[in-house]
Amino acid sequence: MTETLILGVPIVVLAPGLVEVLKKCGLPARYAGLAAIGCAALLAALADVAGLEMPGSGLAWPARLAAWALAGIVYGLAAAGLYAQGKTLAAGRGGDA
Fold first, then answer.
1. Structural domain count of the chain
2. First to last CA, the chain
3. What pTM value is reported for the model?
4. What is the Cα–Cα distance from 88 to 18, expressed in whole angstroms?
């Protein structure tokens, strides 16, 4: 379980960067959330194929695909939220704090 959480940190950090690259290449901004999920799923799949400990490692391929999709959803949404919060704070709209 700890390995999964540790692996999630670089995925959450890298996914917004990959989405920014895609946006610079012409991806409409309205698809950024879906792109974040896709990038996170791709990064989770690459980590699993590379031999890093992922949920679903050692299972049959359909179960591994499901694990990659679930990781993509969780880490992609976390990455999108982190990016949105960073933009909000950078714009000076951080709330009453």
1. 1
2. 34
3. 0.79
4. 20
